Amino acid sequence: MHGRLHINGEWCDAAGGAVFTTYDPATGRPLGTCADAGPDDVDRAVAAARAALADPEWAAMPPNARARLLWRLADLVEESAAELAELETRDQGQPLGVARSVSVAGAAEHFRYFAGWCTKIEGAVSPVSFPDTLHYVRREPVGVCALITPWNFPLMIAAWKLAPALACGNTVILKPAEQTPLTSVRLAGLCERAGFPPGAVNLLTGGPATGRALVAHPDVDKVSFTGSGEVGREIVRGSAGNLKRVTLELGGKAPSVVARDADIDAAVAGNLQGALLNSGQVCAAYSRMYVDRRRADEFTGKLAAAAAGLRLGPGLDPATQLGPLVSLEHLERVDSYVRAGRAEGAQLVTGGERAGGPLEDGFFYRPTVFGAVTDGMAVAREEIFGPVLPVLAYDDPEELAHRANGTEFGLAASLWTRDLATAHRLAADIKAGAVFVNMLPVPDAAAPWGGFKSSGWGREMGPYAIDAYTEVKGVWLHLPTP
Asked: For the Aldehyde dehydrogenase domain, which residue ranges apply (predicted)?
């Protein structure tokens, strides 16, 4: 497989001819190469997006015509579902069922949801206190948007950035993570087939240098980034040159609270799925579990038994329940946290090692459950982004909000209880952008997504995404008396 850049409606190699390799995480073997965009490619893509922003073919396109393009794109995603799902699985590692039902299906739904918004982006008339004056508000596109996506759900997250940006009339440059570029290359081709005019949707594949060049470029008006906090902070610094607008979703360390009255079997099943979806490579994964001390041993034992019984394997194998981690580098990072947990005194109940045997060439890590974890341990404080499940006991429910809020993150949280008062009280007290009660942490196109504290700036999805991709302009008209 060879991925090329897509600039101004044309497929091309990088100006300097550079390429990079993407690997199959299930085997460790090369899967394909992609063009490695350099500074000249970034300049060309930004210039194409800037020109398209002023071209009447896009700038003057009626809202209902934009809506039809997005709806057509959703149809094309569904028509290509089998190919996209297999490509996502090969490049990222997620089980094929997840690729089909979450990644591909979610991408199509985001395009359809925001297709509906194209004809509903409204302004308002303001009752200003100046006599004989009409004041009204227009919502206009922000401009050229750099959309920088992560490696854990490359197709779906590309869709949830592309859809609102295009619905609002912006032009975009999509830059996928270098570990998982292939479905983004295919998506750019589908945008072309759907009929988006040249320059409206551009694709640059490449490494961190490509992203930095986009962030610093003076003709980029907005950056939307999903990824690590370290890179997010770098983006904030890099965007200062022209004070471009920035939306950041920077991960989390989601607490999952299991109340004394919870259905333990349901909580075990829910936490297992919520922690291990995509092998734990999910920003909202349940990654620290607070369980009433009188039920902690029961919960930990059942969680460990269920985790140990999961079948690891390549994502294309229908029997696989847990796929590989995305890269050897990331596997080694996860393993370093497991070793740190053991060194700090956490009790390893199951897992804690790389899978061997027929899986030894891939990047597989056995699901790992820790008991006897305390709040100060690294496995309870830092984002691991892997199949590691720390269980912490609590004695007093009044301490839960304080402990749940005791990290720099605030993306998501989970509550398991039969008591509505407990659910509402903790949902109000926990500082997180989304709180899931008795369910999995799966976002929806219609609901806001984003975090408190170091989990980011701004919100994606729902009407909040329209705010993120539009500028508000006030128009004042003095209407003199005849």
From this structure: 11-474
Rounded to the nearest 5°, which phi and psi values hold at 299?
-60, -45
Distance in angstroms (rounded) separating the CA atoms of residues 396 and 196: 57
Domain ranges of the chain: 2-249+445-475, 254-437
Q: Strand ranges (DSSP E) for 63-191? A: 124-126, 133-141, 144-148, 171-175
Q: What is the DSSP letter of 57?
A: H
Separation CA 81–CA 93 (nearest Å): 17
Task: Write the DSSP string, 240-292.
Answer: GGTT-EEEEE----EEEEE-TTS-HHHHHHHHHHHHHGGGG--TT-EEEEEEE
Q: Please, which residues have CB within 8 angstroms of residue 429's CB and are 6 or more apart in sequence? A: 401, 405
- What's the CATH code, domain 254-437? 3.40.309.10
Of the candidates 88, 109, 178, 249, the residue annotated as catalytic is 249
Say if CB 164 and CB 463 are below 8 A apart. Answer: no
254 burial class (0-12, 13-18, 19+ CB within 10 angstroms)?
A: buried
- pTM of the entire structure? 0.96
Q: Which of 354, 356, 252, 265 is nearest to 306 (CA)?
A: 265
Residue 425 contacts residue 339 (beta carbons within 8 Å): no
304-351 per-position pLDDT tens digit: 999 999 999 999 999 999 999 999 999 999 999 999 999 999 999 999
Which DSSP category does 345 fall into?
T
Active-site residue, 399 included:
no
Tokens of 147: 């959309």
Per-residue pLDDT tens over the stretch 378-423: 999 999 999 999 999 999 999 999 999 999 999 999 999 999 999 9
CATH superfamily of the domain spanning 2-249+445-475: Aldehyde Dehydrogenase; Chain A, domain 1 (3.40.605.10)
Q: In whole angstroms, give the CA distance from residue 377 to residue 359.
A: 30
Q: Of 241, 218, 187, 222, whose CA–CA distance to 43 is shortest? A: 218
